[in-house]
Amino acid sequence: MKKILVVLLFTSVLLAGLVSCKKDSGTIKIGVAGAHSGDLASYGLPTVKAAELVAEMYNANGGVLGKQIELVIEDDVCKPEVATNTAAKLVGEGVVAVVGHICSGATKAALGIYKDEELITISPSATNPPLTKSGDYPNFFRTIAPDDAQAQVEVDFVADVLDLKKVAIIHDKGDYGKGFATFCQDMLNDKGGIEIVMFEGIQVGAVDYSAIINKLGASGADGVIFGGYHPEASKLISQMKKKKIDIPFLSEDGVKDDTFIKVAAEFAEGVYATGPVDTTSNPMAIKAAEDHVAKYGEEPGAFFLNAYAATVALLNAIEKAGSTDFDDISAAMKSEYVETPLGKISFDKAGDAIGVGFAVYQVQNGAFVELK
Amino acid sequence: MNLEYFFSLFLGGMTRGSIYALIALGYTMVYGIIKLINFAHGEIYMIGAFTALIIGGALSLTSMNPVAIFIIAAIVAIVYSAAYGYTIEKIAYKPLRNAPRLSALISAIGVSIFLQNYVLLSQTSDFLPFPNLLPEFGFLKPVENFLSTTQFLILLSTAVVMILLTILIKFTKMGKAMRATAQDQQMAQLVGINVNRVISMTFIIGSATAALGGVLITTHIGQINFYIGFIAGIKAFVAAVLGGIGSIPGAVLGSFVLGLTESFGTGYISSDYEDAFAFIILILILIFKPSGLLGRKENEKV
After folding, report:
1. Disulfide engineering: A201 pairs with which of A328, B58, B208, B272, CB 3.0-4.6 Å?
2. Share of chain A above pLDDT 90, in %
3. How far is CA B269 from the centre of its chain?
4. Rounded CA gap, B259 and B265, in Å?
5. Nearest-neighbour CA in chain A from B23: distance (Å)
6. Is the pLDDT of residue A368 over 80?
7. How far, in Å, are B129, B151, B234, B250 from residue B221 at the CA level?
8. Average pLDDT, stretch A154-168?
9. C-alpha distances in angstroms, B108 versus A265, B22, B39, B120, B289?
C-alpha cells in the first residue's frame, strides 16, 4: 500500500513538472530584475515602472508577435548572492529575456545563469566595462555607457575645465565605485601633469569618516574624485565641508541622484557628478515622463529612460526577429536601429549601446544641472 | 608627519571610540549580569537615532530654539529607547532565562532582525537627513581645525555618562545590587535582592546610553537609515570583547583602543584596511589575553 502511494506521489510530481513545462500561456514573459527594496531601491524601482509603461503601450497595440507581454518582477536587493536566486527564479518562470539587473555586481552574478539558459539580458544601469568588453557574456546588452566612458568624461573635465593639479581619489571598494576610481587613476596617469596624491577605499556604513577626511585635508589635494554611491558621498561631502575642506568634489552616476541632494542638503551645492546625457528634449522621453506622472503620480526616478529604452529595444528586436529565439533576437538587437527616449540607438558587437553617452552635471540651487 | 594631523586623527579616533563605548556599555553590562550577548543592542542605538530624528524634525517646524529642540529630541529618544530595552528583555529574554544560553542568543538575533525590518517598513529604506540643530560653539574656534562642535559634544557626553555610571555602580544601592547579581544571581536572590528589577534596570541603562550614542552620531554625521545599528553594533561588540566582556571599564578602554586603531590605521597607513586593523588588534589581544584587556579570568569549577 505504502509503495503504491509513493509511486503515485512520485509520478504525480513528475507529471506536474511536465505540465508546467509544456504550459503555453499565450504570453511573452519578460523578467524585470533589480533592487526593489533596501538601500538602493531608488535605483531599481524606476526600471520596473518603465517596463510596466512600455509593456502597457505594446499590449494596448496588440502586443508583440501577436502575444501579450507579461512582466515577471523579481527583487535582487542589489546583492550578488541574492541575484543568483533571482535569476534562477526568472528562468523557472520561463521568461524569454530579462530587463536588468541594476547594480553591476548583481548583474554579473546573474549573467552566468542567463547565459547558460540563452536568455537576452539588457541592463539600464550596470556600467561595469568587462560585462560587455570581456566577451564572456554574448547575451548581455545595456542602454547605458560603460564606466570607462564615464571616467573619460570626468578626467577630461578635471584636466581641461577645472584645471586641477593634485587629485585625491576615494572609492567605496565596490565593483562599481572602485572600477570607476581605477579608470580615473589610469587615465590621469596616461594624461600626465596631474598628480594623484591619494587613492584609497573606505568602509561602507562606517560610523564616521573623520580619519579619511583628515587625511584628505593633509594630502594637499585641490580636488577629489569619489567612486561609489550616494549614501557615502553625502557623508563624505558634509564632513569635508564641516572640516572646511573646500575643494571640488567630483563623482559619478551613483551619486547623481536626487536622494543625494535631499540628504546632503546645503553641502551638496557645487558637487559635480557625471551622468548620462540629458535627453529631456527628446519627444519620446517627454511622453514617457508624462505617462509616468499620469500613472504613478510622480516624476520618474534614476535610470527610468535607460530602462524605457532597454525595454523598447528588446521588444522591438523580438518583433523584428519574428521569434523569441536567442540567436534571432541577438542578431536583431545588433542590426536594427530603434527610436528610444535616449535617441536612435542600436548595439555594437560587445553589447554596448551606440548613441548613448555621458555629460558632467553640477548641483546648483538644489538640482543637478548639465554643464555644456 | 606634523602634530596637528596627529591630533586630528587622535580626536577623530576618540570620537569614534566614544560612540563605540556608549554602545559597548550595554553589551558588557547585560553580559556581566545575565551572560547574554544582546545582539539587538545595535538596533536600540538605531531606534534612538530615529526617534531623535522624528522628534527633531517635527519640532524644527516650530519656532523653537534649535538647541532646546536638540535637548528635547535627545531626552525623548533616550526615554523611548530605554522603554524598548525594557520591553525587549521582558518579551524576548525573560521567558528564556533558565533555557540554554544559545536559545536566548538566537532570540536576541531574532529581535535584531525584527527591529531592523520594523523600522524599514514603518519608516523608510532611504537615508534621511538630520536637521543641523547645533550652533558652532564659539570657544572651539581656536581648535576648530581638529575638533568640531559635534565631536566635542560626543567626547563631553561620553565622559559625563562614564562618571555617572561609575557613581551609580560604586556608590548606590542599585549599583551594589547589580554587582551582587553579576557575581551570583541565586545568592543575590537569597539575600533579598529583586533580581528581576536589577536586570530590567541594566537593560534600561544600557539602552539609554546606546540611544544617546545614536542621537550624537546623527548630529555628527547628519544622516541615518534603518541599517546603521548593524555595523555600529558589531564594532561595539568587538570593543566590548577586546576590553573583556562583562567589565565596564574594559568596554570603555576597548572602545577607545578600537577607535584609535581605526583612526591611526586610516591616517598613517590606508583606509582600505580599516576593518582589518580593528580585527588584527582583536586577534592579537585575544591571543595574549584571552579574557580581554580588563576581563576577569574565569576559573572553571570542577
Report:
1. B272
2. 58
3. 27
4. 10
5. 12
6. yes
7. 9, 10, 19, 27
8. 93
9. 37, 19, 5, 18, 27
Give A25's pLDDT tier (boundaries 50, 70, 90).
low
Q: Which percentage of chain B shows pLDDT scores above 70?
A: 98
Average pLDDT on A5-13 reads 64
Closest residue of A to B120, CA-based?
A: A38
E runs forming strands in chain B:
128-129, 223-224
pLDDT tens string A32-85: 999 998 888 889 999 999 999 999 999 999 889 989 999 999 999 999 999 999
CB-CB under 8 Å, A211 with B12 = yes
Exposure letters B261-286 (e unless 16+ CB within 10 A, then b):
bbbbbbbeebbbbbbebbeebbeebe
Q: What is the rounded CA–CA span in Å between residue B207 and residue B56?
A: 20
Q: Taking Cα atoms as reference points, which of B221, B206, B217 lies closest to residue B168?
A: B206
Measured CA to CA, the distance from residue A43 to residue A24 in angstroms comes to 33
Statement: A27-144+281-356 belongs to CATH 3.40.50.2300: yes
| Contact between A75 and A317 (Cβ < 8 Å) | no
Whether residue B260 contacts residue B219, with contact meaning beta carbons closer than 8 Å, is answered with: no
Query: Could you say which of B8, B129, B227 has the minimum Cβ distance to residue A39?
Result: B227
Confidence of residue B301 (pLDDT cuts 50, 70, 90): low
Percent of residues, chain A, with pLDDT higher than 70: 94
Domain boundaries, chain B: 21-229
Domain ranges within chain A, ordered by starting residue = 27-144+281-356, 148-252
Q: Which of A215, A235, A243 sits opposite B266 (nearest CB)?
A: A215
Q: What is the pLDDT of residues A234-285, one digit of tens each?
A: 999 988 988 889 999 999 988 998 889 998 888 999 999 998 887 778 889 9
> A54 in contact with B at a CB cutoff of 8 Å?
no
3-state secondary structure of A121: strand
Domain topology for A148-252: Rossmann fold (3.40.50)
The one-letter amino acid code at A343 reads G
Instruction: Report the residue of chain B nearest A206, measured CA to CA.
Output: B231
CB contact under 8 A, A208 and B220: yes
* Residue A10 or B53, more confident: B53
d(CA A128, CA B213): 38
Spell out which residues of chain A touch residue B128, defining contact as CB-CB under 8 Å: 263
- Measure in Å the smallest separation between the Cα of A174 and chain B Cα atoms: 12
